[in-house]
Write a structure and sequence with these properties.
The structure holds two protein chains of two kinds.
Chain A: H1 3-14, H2 20-31, H3 40-53, H4 67-115, H5 123-171
Chain B: H1 3-9, H2 14-25, H3 28-44, H4 55-77, H5 86-90, H6 95-113, H7 117-128, H8 133-140, H9 144-168
Helix pairs in contact in B: 2-3, 2-4, 3-4, 4-8, 7-9
The chains are: A mainly alpha, B mainly alpha.
């Protein structure tokens, strides 16, 4: 291939205007010997493409083998395991919640038991006790009323003192 | 589709499918796994196969999609470096790949590996596999313009880097 043609093909190649046939011509040229030094990197590139194209694999696939079943089965197993883990997570959450509710209820119940511990078995006794308690409260109220009356007396006296004073001020 | 048709139309292009998966994943074992998945998927859908005109392009498209899925899942798990930049890919080549390619070819391999994903796919399909532009559009589900722009950018990026290597021996 003469250098002008080569230059033209390379230009087309870099501009993505070359056809597959022209690219094959370039490939063919770079496979050969006597490549100018200036184009040695280009030759390397084309040889790399050639080498890559020659790569094969030993992977085989026989659809008659139960491969798909195996794959499906392993997928299913994965799903079941995932489902199991998710269920266990939720179960753990619920267990913690239930334990918390149980302890809170236990606590509340204990408080209530203390409050109702002093009940009497005999109704008569209970009545007497209630009466006594109410009398005590009543007595307390009585005392308080007496004290309140005293305060009231002070208030009245204060009002009496204040009224003539204001009247005097008014007269002056 | 019977077994014979499957072997003739699908298994015959297994090397192309493998190379494409390998180009996208950069790991031979992962590429082989993807290839098996492609075969299983095609075989399980064999009833619909008769309507497909270009079986090879269709298989290549499945390979691309499954490889992308695999790539994302590997990146999510953090077991795979995110394909960005030249330096990350440089460390990517395993010793057996190094021996297989030879040092000089390894440089070119790294150059192509460092390209953005779409450009890498397009340059592989055109320059390694020799697909027509229409076939590349079908495989990558892109329009002609996108394919040509990606190929132009990919080739010119490679050219520029090769020039640098030639000039400075990098």
């Amino acid at each position: 291939m003469d250098s002008r043609k080569l230059e033209e093909l390379l230009q087309k190649y870099w501009n993505c205007e070359s056809s597959l046939e022209e690219e094959e011509q370039l490939r063919e040229y770079f496979r050969g010997e006597n490549i100018p030094d200036a184009l040695s990197e280009m030759a390397r590139l084309f040889r790399y493409f050639d080498e890559q194209r020659a790569r094969t694999t030993d992977v085989e696939f026989d659809p008659t083998m139960p491969l798909q079943l195996k794959t499906k089965h392993s997928d299913k197993k994965g799903k079941i395991v995932k489902l199991f883990y998710n269920t266990m997570r939720i179960a753990a959450g619920v267990a913690v919640l239930l334990a918390a509710v149980y302890f809170v209820r236990q606590e509340v119940r204990n408080d209530n038991t203390i409050a109702v511990e002093d009940t009497f078995d005999d109704p008569q006794k209970a009545f007497e006790e209630t009466k006594r308690a109410l009398l005590m409260i009543s007595k307390g109220f009585g005392n308080a009323e007496q004290q309140a009356r005293k305060i009231n007396m002070f208030n009245e006296a204060q009002e009496k003192i204040q009224t003539p004073t204001t009247e005097e001020n008014f007269n002056n | 589709m019977d077994l014979e048709t499957f072997q003739n139309r699908v298994l015959s292009s297994k090397s192309k499918l493998f190379r494409f998966a390998l180009r996208m994943l950069g790991n031979e074992d992962e590429a082989k796994d993807v290839l098996q998945e492609v075969f299983i998927r095609v075989w399980n859908n064999r009833e619909k196969m008769d309507q497909i005109q270009n079986m090879e392009a269709w298989c290549m498209r499945i390979t691309k999609n499954l490889s992308l899925d695999r790539l994302r899942s590997l990146q999510r798990k953090g077991t795979y470096p995110i394909a960005e930049g030249f330096d990350i890919k440089q460390t990517d080549a395993t010793p057996d790949v190094k021996i297989e390619l030879g040092e000089s070819m390894l440089n070119v391999n790294q150059l192509i590996a460092s390209l953005p994903e779409k450009q890498r796919q397009v340059i592989h399909l055109r320059d390694v596999e020799g697909y027509t532009y229409n076939e590349i559009c079908e495989i990558l589900e892109l329009d002609m313009n996108q394919v040509k722009v990606s190929l132009f950018r990919a080739r010119n990026a490679v050219k520029e880097k090769l020039m640098k290597i030639n000039a400075y021996g990098l």
